Amino acid sequence: MSPEMSLEMSPEMSTETDTLPTCSIARALDLVGDRWALLILREAHRGFTRFADFREVLGIAPNILANRLAALVEAGVLEKREYRAEGERTRSSYHLTPAGVDLKIVLAALQQWGDVHVPRADGPTVLRRNTRTGGLATVGFLDENGEPVPAEDVAFEPVPGGPADRRIWR
Amino acid sequence: MSPEMSLEMSPEMSTETDTLPTCSIARALDLVGDRWALLILREAHRGFTRFADFREVLGIAPNILANRLAALVEAGVLEKREYRAEGERTRSSYHLTPAGVDLKIVLAALQQWGDVHVPRADGPTVLRRNTRTGGLATVGFLDENGEPVPAEDVAFEPVPGGPADRRIWR
DNA sequence: TCCCCTGGGTTGCTCGATGCAACCCAGAAC
DNA sequence: GTTCTGGGTTGCATCGAGCAACCCAGGGGA
Fold first, then answer.
1. Cβ distance of B146 and A143 shorter than 8 Å
2. Which of B28, B135, B146 sits opposite A144 (nearest CB)?
């Protein structure tokens, strides 16, 4: 969540602020908003780093995978590294950047929603574990003091005088 | 977050549990995982309900909008209602179901990520306001007691004996 | 030396989805 | 009975996903 993360923004993306979508949800979706991108990032959070692993576990076509990985690297959420196992040649691997790590909460929120609203009969297959206490974690709203806030008390509020008032703003 | 929400699941979706993707993130993405769906839902959370409003504010082609709205109704996150303003004929409107309302936390998490990692020079345009206290709300992890949990302490953990072990599970 | 294996891709083709433009239809107002 | 407005449908061009096949580099074994 560090503000200096913006240094990792995609370099070809214009620095002119008004060429970006006004809504931060739209900007986020421009980078990670397709099905494969989020599934790849889910696997990255599970610890996968190699092309062949992503391909096997997701059943994704190699050209699509190459395309998505390159886009995610460009978006600054994955980092391509070379590695070499002993007696092997150098290979490529893909690791989460801090921006990618910060997507954990987005994935967790989606997962929590899916578990509740599109359940399987055999229950959740992946849990969100608090590794410090051993308990389970949920995604929720917090106020400035770290106190939980009921979702129904939270409203999206356009900044007064901002551009989010009744025009095409995507 | 009520469990009886599963009654609102898409009726054409098979009840056979093994035809659904194993991962709840994938199941969630099957319903709301394309760019337009999430942007439509964002507008629904801002209070928009009418076809023409969605169309105008998003700049979306009408056939795509009709397609997406129908899919979201079928997915159980929007509900189509007829309404009639006085002196007008009946019209259609689209309202969030409880499942749709529960997506607020997903949209908020995406928005928060976008504000941090793809910022605009003029700052956020939409805030998450705690309507009870007037403060701002953030999205975070909570433990069973409602205490905040640092994101780095939360890990995705496959259920032991579950299907999430090293095969194609999408 | 030659061949094979493995990881990490690229190339070609097909086909469904997306986007735009144009058109349609119902009912109320004039 | 014509117009206006909301809520769509239809036709066509294009784009991207998916699958299959192929490629290429380096290391290991015969």
1. no
2. B135
End-to-end CA distance of chain A: 24
In order of A138, B46, B52, B164, the CA distances from B160 in angstroms are 19, 41, 49, 9
Q: Which fold has domain A22-153?
A: Arc Repressor Mutant, subunit A (1.10.10)
The beta-carbon neighbor of A168 closest among B56, B115, B137 is: B56
How far is residue B7 from each of residues A33, B13, B43, measured CA to CA in Å? 28, 12, 25
Which residues of B fall within a CB distance of 8 Å from A157? 126-129
pLDDT tens, chain B, 170 aa long:
333 333 233 333 434 445 677 788 888 998 888 888 999 999 999 899 999 999 988 888 899 999 999 999 999 999 999 877 767 777 889 999 999 999 999 999 999 999 999 988 887 888 999 999 999 999 999 999 999 999 999 999 888 766 655 455 66
Contact assessment for residue B131 and residue A153, using Cβ atoms and an 8 Å cutoff: yes
Domain borders along chain B are 3-153
- Closest nucleotide relative to residue B93's CA, C1' based: D7
Q: Distance from residue B120 (CA) to nucleotide D22 (C1'), in Å?
A: 44
- Tell me: domain B3-153, CATH 1.10.10.10, correct? yes
